């Protein structure tokens, strides 16, 4: 490997490791009650955001999903401010107004996680189109699950993006499940076939391999920057954890233990980790421990927002809504 | 003085806004040939980039506009029929409206949604005749219903300039209204300011959109017996509560005419708020569509479920019966 390919391998591993350990620390905070409302952990799927975002520049844009911590972190948001957001603190990315499902960091091009399945694609497409019109072109990558490919609005978006040759990369994180519904029970035809029907080049990628995701995304990004319009990547991945942490309390039976063992057999952390020198890997691991140790400390030491400010930012114009009581 | 039609006023407002600000663009169905007439001439003048004909994909292009707005543009969507607001309700209320708060103020979403031809279009039946402005006021999306050409111009200009999403309802029954005016006086009208169309001392009639013209006509008819003040809120959210409170504090009586369904409609909110603020001399009254109205096709049926001048005159008569 050349020096730069080593750097890339390390950097991909660092992102996968960051997301993995972020999620594990967040799960602890869910258990301790510091994160209320729970989370949709993306453990097992880290290679997808890591690979996709490694192909993007700082100015490029992403939109994420309800399972969105990886998207936000991989694009470069500060893990400490992200953890502060999850714990509802005023120092959070969204000042504690968004939480796990709406974390956004416009400063690094994260236009927000979006908790409505299939909804963010049109937003990313509109943003990428606008930036082209404004003379500051960028590429937008928009993540969504396999469940989203049956949402009409996303299919409408494929049409608009293809018609108007918008520089957007549609990234389907096919983890085989939409909550408890198997992808095979939900998708008629194929996932890539949906994009192909609109003339959008589509490929299927090993979503457990960050390097493979990066290579495929680079091609899509190059096409977008060259004026070739949208591309579609189906990243085959695995969700190791619950759909949402509420499953820890309510045991839903939809995957057998044998099935779970198979699901967890190909771990993106090991796949990318195996490409590193053991010593380098250990260094990255300890670096990430420090980053997350600080993140959790920062989050838990931060203030909660003042309830009097609950409706701040509701209107950008500064309009103050009437309160719910009094005349 | 030259005459300006309501429809032409909207057209002029769009053209002026597009001239003043390069980031303003129009998108919608058949807007290039201007099927609704509101976008007439814009494609020729501003070109493909600023006047986009969209496929019939309302949910997709509504959120496309949200994305364009957070990236720095000012989209104006024309919805061909009011029912398209039902289809895109989630995109407007759950995304465009919520992004400023949910991101902690990281972005603004300056999108304007224009519905030229809301309410009954006379003979267009159940699925083309809704007037869903109360829904948007309820969720807190800025909601504008101009009654006159000058206000249509001024409110649309302000809606486009506003940093938040704004829905502009142009009632079908008002599109043909014409006004004599000096075009040089056309100017933005700030959102949230009401207007008294006719001064009176006995009762305040709050009228929305095209019903402003009905209220003025009824006030003229009754002029010998009752002195009616006609208050046009112009913007339903935010509402000019102070302006209306001032009016009703003088007249002591309140009647509302509102083309919403009765249940949870704007009229109910107006009466509740004013009752909290002002000691009324008589019970307030409202003239609205019935609960859960679906406009039936046949003309007499269509009209029978819309608020009428006769109903308004009756409501005013009852409200002023016990004059002090
Ligand atoms: C439009 C919409 N429908 C339903 C839900 C409730 N919901 C949240 S996540 C989810 C499953 C999504 O599955 P998928 O898109 O495959 O993503 P994954 O959770 O597997 O990452 C559902 C049904 C929602 N948030 N939005």
Automatic annotation (TrEMBL), chain A:
GO molecular function terms noted in the UniProt entry: magnesium ion binding; pyruvate dehydrogenase (acetyl-transferring) activity
CDD domains: TPP_E1_PDC_ADC_BCADC
Keywords from the named record: Oxidoreductase, Pyruvate, Thiamine pyrophosphate
Class of this enzyme: oxidoreductase
EC number of the protein: 1.2.4.1
Residues of the Dehydrogenase E1 component domain: 15-276
Highest taxon in the source lineage: Bacteria
Cofactor: thiamine diphosphate
Signal sequence coordinates: none
GO biological process, alphabetically ordered: pyruvate decarboxylation to acetyl-CoA
A Pfam family reported for this protein in Swiss-Prot or TrEMBL: E1_dh
Gene3D superfamilies documented for this protein: 3.40.50.970
Name the UniProt record assigns to this protein: Pyruvate dehydrogenase E1 component alpha subunit
Organism of derivation: Actinophytocola algeriensis
TrEMBL record, chain B:
Pfam families in alphabetical order: Transket_pyr, Transketolase_C
Coiled-coil ranges from the UniProt annotation: none
InterPro entries, alphabetized: THDP-binding, Transketo_C/PFOR_II, Transketolase-like_Pyr-bd, Transketolase_C
Cofactor(s) recorded in Swiss-Prot or TrEMBL: thiamine diphosphate
SUPFAM superfamilies, per the entry: Thiamin diphosphate-binding fold (THDP-binding), TK C-terminal domain-like
SMART domains: Transket_pyr
UniProt GO molecular function: magnesium ion binding; pyruvate dehydrogenase (acetyl-transferring) activity
Keywords: Oxidoreductase, Pyruvate, Thiamine pyrophosphate
Residue span, Transketolase-like pyrimidine-binding domain: 4-177
Protein EC: 1.2.4.1
Top-level enzyme category: oxidoreductase
Keyword Oxidoreductase: yes
Entry keyword Cell division: no
Entry protein name: Pyruvate dehydrogenase E1 component beta subunit
């Amino acid at each position: 490997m050349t020096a730069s390919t080593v750097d890339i391998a390390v950097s991909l591993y660092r992102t996968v490791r960051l997301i993995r350990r972020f999620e594990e620390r967040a799960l602890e905070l869910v258990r301790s009650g510091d994160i209320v409302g729970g989370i949709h952990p993306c453990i097992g799927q880290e290679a997808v955001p890591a690979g996709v975002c490694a192909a993007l520049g700082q100015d490029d844009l992403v939109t994420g999903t309800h399972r969105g911590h990886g998207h936000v972190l991989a694009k470069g948001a500060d893990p400490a401010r992200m953890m502060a957001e999850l714990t509802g603190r005023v120092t959070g990315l969204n000042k504690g107004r968004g939480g796990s499902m709406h974390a956004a960091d416009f400063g690094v091009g994260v236009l927000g996680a979006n908790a409505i399945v299939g909804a963010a694609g049109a937003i990313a497409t509109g943003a990428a189109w606008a930036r082209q019109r404004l003379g500051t072109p960028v590429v937008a990558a928009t993540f969504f699950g396999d469940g989203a490919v049956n949402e009409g609005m996303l299919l409408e978006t494929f049409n608009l993006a293809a018609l108007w040759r918008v520089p957007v990369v549609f990234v389907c994180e096919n983890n085989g499940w939409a909550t408890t519904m198997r992808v095979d029970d939900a998708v008629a035809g194929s996932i890539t076939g949906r994009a192909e029907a609109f003339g959008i080049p589509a490929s299927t990628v090993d979503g457990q391999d960050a390097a493979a995701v990066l290579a495929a995304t680079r091609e899509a990004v190059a096409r977008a920057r060259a004026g070739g319009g949208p591309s579609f990547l189906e990243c085959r991945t695995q969700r190791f954890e619950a759909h949402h942490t509420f499953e820890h309390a309510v045991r839903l039976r939809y995957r057998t233990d044998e099935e779970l063992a198979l699901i967890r057999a190909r771990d993106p952390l090991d796949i990318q980790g195996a490409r590193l020198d053991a010593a380098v890997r250990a260094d990255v691991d300890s670096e990430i421990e420090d980053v997350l140790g600080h993140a959790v400390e920062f989050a838990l030491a931060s203030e909660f927002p003042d309830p009097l400010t609950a409706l701040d930012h509701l209107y950008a114009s500064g309009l103050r809504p009437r309160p719910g009581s009094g005349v | 003085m030259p005459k300006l039609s309501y429809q032409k006023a909207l057209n002029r407002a769009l053209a002026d806004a597009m001239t003043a600000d390069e980031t303003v663009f129009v998108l919608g169905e058949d807007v290039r040939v201007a099927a609704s007439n509101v976008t007439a001439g814009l494609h020729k003048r501003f070109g493909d980039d600023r006047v986009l004909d969209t496929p019939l994909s309302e949910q997709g292009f509504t959120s496309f506009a949200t994305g364009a707005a957070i990236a720095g543009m000012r989209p104006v969507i024309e919805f061909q029929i009011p029912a398209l607001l039902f289809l895109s309700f989630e995109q407007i209320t759950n995304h465009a409206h919520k992004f400023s708060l949910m991101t902690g103020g990281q972005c603004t979403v300056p999108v304007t949604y224009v519905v030229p031809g809301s309410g009954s279009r006379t003979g267009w039946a159940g699925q083309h005749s809704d007037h869903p402005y109360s829904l948007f006021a309820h969720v807190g999306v800025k909601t504008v219903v101009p009654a006159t050409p000058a206000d249509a111009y001024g409110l649309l200009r302000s809606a486009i300039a506003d940093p938040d999403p704004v829905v502009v309802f142009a009632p079908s029954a008002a599109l043909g209204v014409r006004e004599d005016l000096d075009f040089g006086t056309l100017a933005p009208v700030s959102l949230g300011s009401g207007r008294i169309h006719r001064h009176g001392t006995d009762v305040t009639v709050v009228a929305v959109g095209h019903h402003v013209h009905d209220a003025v006509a009824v006030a003229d008819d009754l002029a010998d017996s009752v002195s009616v003040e006609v208050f046009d809120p112009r913007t339903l959210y935010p509402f000019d509560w102070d302006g209306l409170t001032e009016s009703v504090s003088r007249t002591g009586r309140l009647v509302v005419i509102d083309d919403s369904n009765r249940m949870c409609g704007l009229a109910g909110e107006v009466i509740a708020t004013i009752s909290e603020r002002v000691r009324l001399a008589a019970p307030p009254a409202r003239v609205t569509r019935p609960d859960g109205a679906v406009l039936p096709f046949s003309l007499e049926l269509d009209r029978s479920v819309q608020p009428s001048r006769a109903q308004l005159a009756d409501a005013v008569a009852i409200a002023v019966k016990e004059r002090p």
